[in-house]
Write a structure and sequence with these properties.
Blueprint lengths: L3 E5 L7 E5 L5 E7 L3 H13 L3 E7 L2 H13 L12 E4 L8 H8 L4 H4 L3 E6 L4 H7 L5 E6 L4 H5 L2
Parallel strand pairs: 3-4, 3-5, 5-6, 6-7
Antiparallel strand pairs: 1-2
Amino acid sequence: MLKNIYKPSFFGIFGYMKIKSPAYKHKSIMLIDDNEIDNFINEKLIKSYYFAENVYVHTSSKSALEFLKNIEVTLKEVPSDLIPSHILLDINMPILDGFHFLEEFEKFNPELKNKIKIIMLTTSLNPLDMERSKNYKHVIKFLHKPLTDTELSGL
């Protein structure tokens, strides 16, 4: 969907010309990371490259799971564009880490789960984390921080 932006035309007095901004690739995505600076930077990157129009930011797995549970309960009434198409998930977080999030995510209704792709976005260099993430069907990629425009365009 392209948004219409009106800007003064080159000739100024003759009115405004209509300029279309680029369409977003996705309507909504979710960031789950306890690092607020990483979330801020990633949200700016996602919006500036028109990857997603809405970015839901959660600094804990627990709040993200609660958000998804609320969507699941009202799945029939929730517009599909409010459901995040992708989740960028950090591994190392306090209380409930990324793998615990994945365990809880697996318990959701398949109708919701199948609409969401998960990308592990982490500082972890442990090869066992990468291998472990392959055990989850909805994890489609394992990326190392920082997120770049090249990685974003490859999703």
